[in-house]
Amino acid sequence: MGMENAANYEDWQTAAAAYDEASGLDEWRQDESSPHYHREELIRDIQQLQKLRACEDIHRLLEVLHASLHRHHNDLLEPALYSTAMSGTKHIITRYLDEVESTIRSLVDTELPGWTIQQKLGVVRRASANLGRSALLMSGGASLGFYHMGVGRALWRAGLLPEVLSGSSMGALMAAGFGCRTDAELEALFTPDIPPIERLGLERRTWQDLIRNRTIMNPKRLLETIRANCGRYTFAEAYKRSGRILNISVAPTRARQKPRVLSYRTSPDVWVPIAALASSAVPGLFPPVSLTRKRDDGTDAPYIASERWIDGSLGEDLPMMRIARLHNVNHFIVSQTQPHVLPVMSGLQRKGLTGLITEATTGWAKAQTIPLVGVGRKLASKTALRVPVDMVHSIATQRYTGHIDIRPRFEPRLYLKLLSNPSIDDLRHFVIEGERATWPKLQMIRDHTRLSRCLADCERTLMALVSS
Predict the structure, then answer these.
(1) With contact defined as beta carbons under 8 Å apart, do 312 and 249 qualify?
(2) From its phi and psi, is residue 36 left (phi > 0), alpha (psi between -120 and 50) or beta?
(3) How many CB atoms lie within 10 A of CB 466?
(4) CA separation (Å) from 461 to 120, 249, 329, 454, 465?
C-alpha cells in the first residue's frame, strides 16, 4: 500500500521509509552537511551541552543553551529540510533537538544547589515567552471544511494538537468543536472511524421564507447543529474546561469597522455557538448575526448591540497578526480548505514546468486584480455595491498560508457538494483525506514545536510542585 492510499499513520510511515530507502534519500538524512545551517557549530554545541550537563556546570549550561538556541533555532525551521525525504529530516537535527530537550528537562528534574522551584519556574516561563508557541488555524471552505476533522484527528493522535486553535467560517465550527471538548471528549471524538458529530447543518428555506428573509439557508438549523457539536459554553467556560484557547474570527457588516477575533481574552462571556454561527454567515446564504453574551446571573444580553457580523473568512480567513499579539504565537500551522485556494496551492506545489507556470500565472493575476479591485472599492464606497466589492478585495488581498500548510488533494468532483450536508461516506472520505494530508507534515510539526512543547510540559511539572 502506497503513501497516498495508506489507511493509518503506521502504514504511511512504513511506505515512506520504504520510499526513502529505495530512492537513496536515507543517505541524504545521514549526510550532516547542508546550506541551511552551520554543521560544525551544531556539532560543537551538541558536544558542549553534553559535557556541561555531565559536570553540572549550571550557569555555563544556561548560557550555552541560550546562545545555541538563538544561533540555530530559526535555521532548523527551514522548510527545505523537510521537503526532501518523506520519513524525516537530517539525523543531526534530531540529535541536536534530543540534546536540547534533555538539557532542559535535566535542569527541571534535577535538584540544583541554590535553586528553588520558583526560580526554575521563572526561567522556564521566560524561555517559553521568548520561544513563542504554535497555533492551528482552520480556514473556511463550506463542506470542504470537514477535511479539518481529519487534520485535527491526525494531530491529536500524534500528540501534536496545539493549545491555540482558530477558525473562520466552516473552520470556526471545527475549532469550536475541538476547543470546547475536554481531552477525554476529544479522545471519544477521534477514536471511531467516523466521528460522532451532527453533520446535517444545512437546511434550505422554503420559497416563502427565502423571499421574506432574502437568504437561502435556515440559520436556526445550523445553530442547533453547532450546539450539538460543541455544547453551550462561553469562550471563558470553554477555556476553563478544555485548557485550549479557542479563537473565532468574524467580519463586520458596517463600514469602518474591523474584523474581530473572539476569544476568552477579548470576549470571555460571548457564547461560542453564536460566534461560530456569525463566522459562518456567508452573505446570501445566511443573515448577519448579532452576538450575545452571558450575564453574571446566567441570562443572555447583546454583545455590542449595534453591530452585526458575517463570515469570518471575508474579513480575515487566517488572523495571524491578531492571534500572535493575543497569545504569543509565532508559528502557524494552517489547515487550508478554501475552494478558491486549493487549486492554486495544488498547482504551486507541483514540481517542474507546471509549478513554475502556476506560480507565474498566479503572481500576474494577483498583480492585475488588486489595483483594479482597489479602484472599484473607491468607486463603490458610497453605493449598494460597497459590501460585495469589499469582500472581493479582502479575498484577493488575504494571506492563505502559514509556516506549515496542510491541504487535501484537489478533487473537483467535491465542488458539486460545497453547499450540501455530507453523507456518511462523504464524512469518512473527508476525515481520511484530511489525515493523509497531515501525515507527511507530522515530523516537521513535531520538530518545529518540540521545544515549545517541552517547555510547556516543564512548566506544568513545576506548577504542580509549587502547588503541592
Answers:
(1) yes
(2) alpha
(3) 12
(4) 11, 33, 22, 11, 6
In angstroms, the CA 466 to CA 287 distance is: 50
CB count within 10 Å of CB 236 equals 17
- Residue 53's pLDDT band (cuts 50, 70, 90): confident
User: Burial, 46: exposed, middle or buried (Cβ in 10 Å; 0-12, 13-18, 19+)?
Assistant: middle
pLDDT band at 62 (very low <50, low <70, confident <90, very high): confident
C-alpha cell at 401: 498560508
**Cell numbers placing 100:** 536540547
> 205 near 216, Cβ under 8 Å?
yes
What is the spatial distance between Cα 458 and Cα 110, in angstroms, rounded to a whole number? 12
Distance of CA 253 to the CA centre of its chain: 26
- Sole residue written with cell 479522545: 187
Angle among Cα 73, 455, 266 to the nearest 5 degrees reads 100
**Tens-digit pLDDT profile for residues 302-313:** 999 999 999 999
Give 318's pLDDT tier (boundaries 50, 70, 90). very high
The amino acid that residue 34 corresponds to is S
Cα 445 off chain centre by? 11
Q: What is the pTM of this model?
A: 0.90
Is the pLDDT at 348 greater than 50? The verdict is no
Q: Tell me the mean pLDDT in the region 177-186.
A: 97
Q: What angle do CA 349, 354, 358 make, to 5 degrees?
A: 70
Q: CA 32 to CA 48: how far, in whole Å?
A: 18
For 434-446, how does the pLDDT look when each residue is reduced to its tens digit (9 = 90+)? 999 999 999 999 9
